[in-house]
From TrEMBL, chain A:
Transmembrane segments: none annotated. It comes from Aquila chrysaetos chrysaetos. This is TBC1 domain family member 19. InterPro entries: Rab-GAP-TBC_dom, Rab-GAP_TBC_sf, TBC1D19. SMART domains: TBC.
From TrEMBL, chain B:
This is Nicolin 1, tubulin polyglutamylase complex subunit. Residues 120-150 are annotated as: Disordered. InterPro entries: Nicolin-1. It comes from Aquila chrysaetos chrysaetos. The gene is NICN1. One of its GO terms (cellular component) is nucleoplasm.
Amino acid sequence: MLDPDSGLSLTIARIVQRLKGSSLHSQLERQARVSLHKPEIKLESLKEDIKDFLKTSGWEKKLQNAVYSELNVFPSPCHPAAPPEHMKEPLAYMRKAQGSWEKRILKSLNSMCTELSIPLAQKRPVSEQKELLNKWNEMGTDEPDLSLFRPVYAPKDFLEVLMNLRNPNYENGEQPSFRSHLGLIQVPLKVKDIPELKEDFGELGLNIGQLGIDDSAQVPPEFFENEHVRVGQKVLAEQDSAAAQQYVRQGCPTALRADLWALILNISNQPEDILYYEQLKSNVIQHDLLVDSLIYKDVKLTASNDDYYFVFEDYLYQVLLCFSRDTSVLEHFTYSSATPPKSYIRGKLGMEEYAVFYPPNGVIPFHGFSMYVAPLCFLYHEPSKLYQIFREMYVRFFFRLHSISSHPSGIVSLCLLFETLLQTHLPQLFYHLREIGAQPLRISFKWMVRAFSGYLATDQLLLLWDRILGYNSLEILAVLAAAVFAFRAVNLMEVTSLAAAEAVLADLSTLKVMPLLQIFLFATVT
Amino acid sequence: MPVRVAVPVRGGGLPVRGLRPPVPQVQEIVFRNFYTAFLSVRVQRPGPSGSRRWVTCLRDYCLMPCPHTEEGSQDYFSLRRHQMLCDVDQVTAVRFILRQPSPVWLHFTIEELQIFPPGQKSPQKDFPSWLSQLTPPEQPASLHGELPDPEKVSTEVQQMWVLTEVIRARQAAARIGRFDVSPAILLVGAPASPHFWRSPPGGGCSRRDGVGVWGGLSRQSDGAAQGPTVALFQVDGCYDINLLSYT
């Protein structure tokens, strides 16, 4: 491990390098130059005066927000001797498992391609381009024939892969022993227990006000809600990312949520961001990708069928089609265990000069992918801002839900955390479900992979995602999954098959997440 | 010349090479962990009367905070001079004592061992010009106790920048050769009382909650070796890595 001093220096060097070429840097330079005309800037104390000016005009705060964002997104720097793949994923066998999973996905995509004899990418004829441009805001009305397309994989396929994940250096004996895990996940990752979670999620405690609990109709708003809204407005006025992240741990008022999330994710919707989105849009119009059909199919199968999200179908196309073409997403592969698939220009197989990443953003959508975007449509109506928020949330959080890694917020750790929590605190329920062949993870996996999108009511889902942003971690998904099982434990003890267990847990739309979380973490007798 | 040895720890040993008179000092030890939970390091130094004594310079350094789980199991670690309990000048032998109390792992060891003498930093590279334009930091108006000293931090930025360049370029420094280690000793009990006996040949560090001590160092020729072969490692009855001279 790096000792603290050199680790800090490395982090500083990395952040400086990343911010150096950014638009914020050029804006700061421009502001500094403009400020030279001001009377209070004197030549003798030029540096100090400019620094003071930047502070008072709010530019220092923008820089602070940018630095904070970099710290949140990128992991702490590795040891200098560590190769780049170590930063992606330190454990060799997990890298290997991710590699073989990716090969499987690509094989499936390639076979679909050859079966349907559709190229991975082709330029659209001019007439089609014009038509698409006209229909841009109503792509949902299009009814292309997608019957031959099938999703590349579904969450349950991914669960099978995770179940078979084994550490070759671990004692995976045939005989069940204290070393084997009773759940489906058999890798010995470190997961937190309830005392550690209580400490981490301290702001969800019983004696602290929460939106989702203390703003219900029975509670007079003077007790908590009014004050909380007032503090939220103050945080927005200050434009401080770190303060906003701390604030949303107790929930976001609905009116302030869009701005607070944008502040935490450091999205400001500058003109150059809008321009970038327009450029992506023109890329969509000019070229047709195979993944576009996968996206269409996914949206039609999932979001369009959902009572809450079908109205946003057009937005989903506008966001996801542009997302596929956004090469800035490739940056996240430095800290993700996944690797973007490579493809070659036709006829130039194997020649590196003709290699491209396919799709351009390196992310192949799976069944349910569009559900990551759908809840955001409630908050943002302007397509370019919606797009940027989704992209930032993907490269911070959602990519961990469909790649194999040992990260504490990765899906493998979340599954193990869920199973461990259930085993430790509801051992009878866990044993019973296991005996009837209904391993709890089989039911809760799909909730966690989608971050509960499409399973909870939208206001509850947004309260949950507030906490994901506030704590910069996805562990709360596993805690909520365990809390749901705890809530329905009585019914679950009476079922006798997997199908019956699934039926008990089929409908989560009436659940209130914050009371469940609070009770599970803070009010369960251990 | 730099002393840099990559030591993959699998497989049997090969015969020993000759030795050179010892001079060395140790600045930094870098290695990659493989499921070792605790590491102790002892060095052999000349004693007051000319005899050589073993001194513990690192005791039970924790590599895996929770030995039953994966945390820290395959990470890279650096041990620096200032972390050592004793002076690491005039070292003639270094002994690494590995402990893994958890019985769930089949093998445990450390890999890619590199020992750097003082004065040898990563190869100088052309770092960007803006680094040389770093102005010395002004004294901040108020120094909080928790914040690091800005002067210290900014003087290290240069060095660390070079390191980041190294990460990206990943060019190997001059290598001496590759060494195979066949751990041959099983030590039960406190590392401070070294009673060694040979384990069956061909064994890795046993996973029975024991202590593995390295032995059986040998030199293999490395096709990719660059530069003159300098430091040579003596195998002393399959026990220790002896740090010898380098020009």
